[in-house]
Design a protein that fits this description.
This protein is an alpha/beta fold. The protein folds into 2 domains: 37-149, no CATH class; 162-286, no CATH class. The protein has helices at 2-33, 66-90, 99-103, 107-118, 144-149, 162-165, 214-220, 229-234, 262-269, 274-279, and strands at 38-40, 44-47, 52-59, 92-94, 97-98, 121-127, 133-140, 180-184, 198-200, 205-207, 224-226, 242-246, 249-251, 257-260, 283-286. A 5-stranded antiparallel β-sheet has the order 1-2-3-7-6. A 4-stranded parallel β-sheet has the order 11-15-8-12.
């Protein structure tokens, strides 16, 4: 009897311990996600900071038949696949072109999107008191998906011969080479897209398909989005000595490009190492 009384005391304590540990983990996740740039859809989400894409599927038993209950997890997974496909299709390649519109007449791309959903992993699975099932599945935009949907204009740029470029890429003594580019687009209402375009006030191309090597774009994304300048400065993607330009406004219809000043454009033009970090997509856009 004494042992039973002890367990009556210990069990609630153990349960509460796990509860508080879960709460602490969720709090840490929320703090981490606080600077992430996320697009939320009806039953899915795109994390533009991590490249993670998720969707939720749900299913309930049709009746109390045992077979009906056994089918529920599979039905929830099938629904999650459908929701993930819809989420993938809603992603914008640029502000005027969605993945759905781009892929609508290409069976190969559509088949690839469906395969991406089938290959997604289950990250969470819940059972309710009514024996319904809710499943969250996740995949990454990097790799196969970006290979499918990035425009053909983004091609492989051959490596620059170091013997040819050696004399041109030497920094002035005491001044390190620039390692990447941060665009501060806060306050502009910039919508994250797969293939952003940046221009000067006079329309000079700063960053577009012509500057990007496809292998880097496919593996890491054309750029990374963050909602914190402090976190952007700490990010390994842009190295220890990035250029930082302020976005002035959006232009085009419908707001297709980010515009920077002519003085920033002139500075970039004088930066010979820009060819390297632009090619390797070492770009971060800080948005709201």
């Amino acid at each position: 009897m004494k042992q039973n009384k002890k367990w009556r005391v210990y069990v609630p304590v153990i349960v509460l311990s796990f509860f508080f540990m879960d709460c602490l983990c969720l709090a840490n996740q929320d703090q981490t996600r606080g600077y992430h740039s996320i697009t939320q859809f009806k039953n899915g989400a795109v994390n533009w900071t991590t490249g993670n894409i998720s969707a939720i599927g749900k299913a309930s038993p049709k009746d109390n038949n045992e077979t009906s209950h056994e089918l529920v997890p599979g039905l929830a997974r099938a629904d999650a696949n459908r929701q993930l496909i819809e989420t993938l299709k809603q992603i914008k390649i640029n502000p005027s072109l969605s993945v759905d519109a781009y892929a609508s007449k290409n069976d190969i791309i559509l088949a690839g999107i469906e395969k991406t959903a089938r290959d997604a992993v289950i990250s969470k699975q819940y059972y309710t008191s009514a024996l319904a099932v809710e499943i969250m599945i996740e995949t990454s935009m990097f790799g196969g998906f970006l290979q499918l949907v990035l425009p053909e204009e983004i091609r492989q740029i051959p490596k620059i011969n170091p013997e040819i470029s050696q004399g041109k890429n030497v920094a002035i003594i005491g001044e390190p080479l620039f390692s990447g580019l941060i665009i501060d687009a806060t306050g502009l209402g910039v919508e994250p897209v797969l293939n952003p375009v940046i221009v000067s006030e006079q329309g000079h191309a700063i960053y577009s398909s012509a500057f990007i090597s496809r292998d880097f774009a496919v593996q890491n994304g054309v750029c990374k989005y963050l909602s914190s300048m402090d976190q952007a400065l700490k990010d390994k993607r842009i190295g220890n000595h990035p250029l930082i330009f302020k976005g002035l406004r959006k232009e085009g219809k419908p707001n297709t490009v980010i515009v920077i000043s002519m003085s920033d454009y002139s500075l970039l033009e004088k930066t010979t190492e820009r060819h390297s970090f632009l090619k390797e997509c070492r770009i971060i856009i800080v948005n709201d």
